[in-house]
Amino acid sequence: MVPTMPFTMLSRFLHPDPRVRRELVDLLYTSLPQVMAISVTSVIGAVALTVIDGDPGYAVIALLILITASARIASLLRYKSRAGKLSDVEVVRWERIYGAGACAFSLALGALSYRTLHLGDAPGAWLAFGLSMSFCVGMVSRAAIRPWVILTAAAALLLPTVVAGLMRPELAYNVGAVMLVFFWLTLREASKHLSAAFVERLEARHRLALQASRDFLTGLPNRAAFLQSLATIGGNFAIIAIDLDGFKPVNDRHGHHAGDDLLRQVAARLATCAGADGIAARFGGDEFMMLKPVAAGEHGRADALELARRAIFELSKPYLLSDLPVRVGASAGVLVNDGEFAAGSTAHLLEQVDRALYAAKRAGGGTARSDADDEPARRAAV
């Protein structure tokens, strides 16, 4: 689910998928080598002009370039150290921080060009123009990632130069200023097309990744995604194996389309039972799994059994298949990992929960059985 964010002027430029958005911002913040290179050369160039000409304006601009360059480098390093812990909303904030830093540096570098043209310093203008073009080349390499950042920064860079060029009495400067406007318009069109193609590839890759981890029928995580979650979960957790009772007769009587519809409704109910911190997955056929963090000790076991009973109860409610009410039941096996199986393999955990499920099926179905119990848990109300 995409987090709700307050509307701002930049909201329409943000990608709606938080996964794609995060990857785009991560790519922005891989620009440390380019940022450091242009920062060092810009500071050296501005300081050189200050020393050669002795103009206090150059000194102020050199200081601004140093400050904005240092802030950009610091933000790049800070993002790299915190990227894995950022929420989706914080990632959006860091995208804006990157844009603000790029624009601030661009404005300072543009001010250097303005000052050289204002003073009529031809060698200085040539140096400032070279620095500006070097910065533009570095930005163009990011045009496919976040074009709004590049276009805003380019405008901040070129605007002072355009204004100063139009203020000069020489026609050549006036024409050059107009050409810079056309350069920005060309950059805008190129960025738009590059970004569309690049983002489309990212979206396609994420769709393929999602399809590889999702059950095509129910939309739940599939076996592979569940096993991945099981392998990476920490702390105390419960595994609940669920098998439908009486699904085959429904499938045989009403047809496979109705059976598919029933499985989708089962998946929706299990996802609701699992909650935001749990996972409901389809293993195949009418077999499902739930994975959920629980408290330690007996409280965790009680919560896991209660969750299994609630799932059985929800699944026992009638389903509408082509406006016809249909009922099926469910059995559940429950395993709580409170450290006993910490060194065991995933296959061992699944074997234990399957054993509990088979015990529930042998008890007549409609029952939740824990791996730690000798007797079935109380039958769920149906």
What structural class do helix, strand and pairing data support?
alpha+beta
- Helix count, per DSSP? 12
User: Given the C-alpha coordinates, what overall shape results?
Assistant: elongated
**Strand coverage percent:** 5-15%
- Which sequence of strands runs across the widest sheet? 2-3-1-6-7
What is the averaged pLDDT score?
Answer: 86
Note the gap between the termini.
33 Å
Q: Element order, helices and strands?
A: HHHHHHHHEHHEEHEEEHE
Query: How much helix is in the residues?
Result: 55-70%
Largest sheet: 5 strands, mixed
State the total count of DSSP E strands.
7
Q: Regions with pLDDT < 50 over 5+ consecutive residues?
A: 1-9, 374-382
Radius of gyration: 31 Å
Q: How many domain modules? A: 2
In short:
The protein has 382 residues and is an alpha+beta fold.
Question: Could you walk me through the main structural features you see in this protein, from its secondary elements to its overall organization?
Answer:
With about 375 residues, the chain is α+β, with helices and mostly antiparallel strands. It has two domains: about 10-210, no CATH class; about 225-370, Alpha-Beta Plaits (2-Layer Sandwich). The protein is about 65% helix and about 10% strand. The protein has helices at about 20-30, 30-55, 55-80, 90-120, 120-140, 145-165, 170-215, 225-230, 245-255, 255-275, 295-315, 345-360, and strands at about 235-245, 280-285, 285-295, 320, 325, 330-335, 370. The strands form two sheets. It has a five-stranded mixed beta sheet, sandwiched between helices. A two-stranded antiparallel ribbon has the order 4-5. Helix 2 packs antiparallel against helix 5 and helix 4 runs parallel beside helix 6 (about 145-165). It is elongated. It starts with 17 loop residues before the first helix and ends in a 12-residue tail after the last strand. Mean pLDDT is about 85; it is low at about 1-10 and about 375-380.
